[in-house]
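B., you asked whether I could sanity-check this one before it goes into the benchmark set. Here's the sequence:
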Amino acid sequence: MTEISTHPTTDPAATGPASPTSPAGDAELVAAAVAAAGRGMTDRETVAEVVTLCAVAGEHLLVVGPPGTAKSEAVRRVAGQFGGRYFEYLLGRFTEPNELFGPVDLRQLREGRVEFETAGMLPEADVAFLDEVFLGSTAVLNTLLGLLNERVFRRGRTVLASPLRVCVGAANHLPDDPALAAFADRFLARVFVEPVADARLEELLEEGRRPAPAQAGPGGPAGLLAAVDRLASAARTCDLDEVTPLVAAALRRLRGAGVPVSDRRAVRSQKLVAAAAVLDGRSTASARDLWVLPLIAPTADTQALARDTLADLIEKAANRSLVHAADELSRSTAARAERIARTGTALLAEHRGLPAGRDSRLRLEAALREIDAGFDPADLPVALAGIRAELVAAVAPS
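And here's what the prediction gave me:
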């Protein structure tokens, strides 16, 4: 795998306000980009955020859900914010390896050498999305397996270090074929999606009328892909000593509850914990980062079981950059407060730039109702109390 530039990791609390090129500053840049990617994607913010988590962790993601649930759109928007090279393909039973990895270089073949043209293909992508990933042929999946494992493409005489940060595989359902189990296991994190709930259909329709957010050009806004790489470097040196006993206790609980966790997945789960910490602006992991552990459960049912089994260990989990994912996977009060605060701030900023209207007022009132339903006034976090006061002022009759 190609080396990623290193960047010193520091605790933001010890250094004051984050500079644009500090790990905390990079986390803020990436948080703003992933929020932009998720804007207008009703109930798909978690997918966008977990793609970002995996890009920093250097792991791959599997998204499972029925057709038409915006799996590809969520990934496409994140890749558009990151910039860099993006590769997307729908696999089928008859997909040939050269459709993903590139054709034979005919000039080299005339000289008796079997090499491949990889320009614009998967081996040279920074972010990749493979739809119906389990439908690939044995030849496709075997070549893909090596690329995912080692970030190195090997075929014929071609050996190429791949810049791939994250590959997102998508499927309508998990495969029943045991032969695909080893391949599926290379996707450490899993996200399961369903059609948007009936209660949010008005929101879905309203957001569907809005144009998609503008994408970054190659290289990303202000070097966003470089910021992701610096965070990935910081994650590799993140201090996990404090949280290791908690992770071990959590994994024992998961296995005891019947959630299958192989040794390989157990070890690699630490990369998700470290990535969550640096995306939260810290160089030391803590219990606040344990919300990522349900992601390694292999099915929707075992993921729900994992969340319930770890409820007391992840009750303080939260993340300033990945507010929706932390809330959904932990269901903690702290994570809910982070998410509502981020949503409320964005709504207020949007409201100030728009003429007064019924739709805007309804969205502000919905945010207020969520705050009042989820928190006792006496226990309302200070930051959330300030946002609530602003929301009340915004909806008050003039």
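One thing to flag: The first helix runs from residue 12 to 15. Otherwise nothing jumped out at me.
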